[in-house]
Amino acid sequence: MARMHTRRRGSSGSDKPATDENPEWSDVDAEDIESRVVELAEQGHDPSVIGLKLRDEGVKGVPVPDVKLATGKKLTEILEEHDAAAEYPEDLRKLMERAVRLREHMAENDQDHQNKRALQNTESKIRRLANYYRGDEIDEEFTYTYERAAELVGDE
């Protein structure tokens, strides 16, 4: 999505190593990993943060470089199995949080045209992403409104 609203190029990032098995130095039991994932989710962490914590802190002191290689399931699949998944996917929720912050900023600073454009772009991304998730990850009837996004951000 790097070139969606600008002419600039996206930033490059590192790729995951091309491997199909868990490294032997990370021999944590899959059940221990799943219980730690659910525990972190119950503490209110997002899936991306859970992955970072497993990589950095590990389970019982042993790092987990890749949850999918270690357990055979994606992190979000583990959360869904244990009914710990969030109502909305993380990327959509983060965009809605950003839109609420921008809308609140615009209420105080109505001459800030740069942020007005940023709000338009963010809401456009939300609608595009909602179309992608509609019926599968989110309700078929979902439509983005500022009120719904504000309610979501207020719940957290």
UniProtKB/TrEMBL annotation:
- For this chain's UniProt record, which GO biological process terms are given? translation
Pull one GO CC term from this UniProt entry: ribonucleoprotein complex
Spell out the SMART domains in the cross-references: Ribosomal_S13_N, Ribosomal_S15
Record region (Disordered): 1-33
Q: Record's family?
A: Belongs to the universal ribosomal protein uS15 family.
**Which named protein is this?**
Small ribosomal subunit protein uS15
Coiled-coil stretches are none
**Gene3D superfamilies xrefs:** 4.10.860.130, S15/NS1, RNA-binding (1.10.287.10)
Provide ranges: composition bias, Acidic residues.
Answer: 21-32
| Comp. bias (Basic residues) | 1-10
Which HAMAP family does this UniProt record tie to the protein? Ribosomal_uS15_A (MF_01343_A)
- Which of UniProt's keywords are assigned here? Ribonucleoprotein, Ribosomal protein
Taxonomic source organism: Halorubrum yunnanense
* Highest taxon of the lineage: Archaea
| Protein's gene | rps15
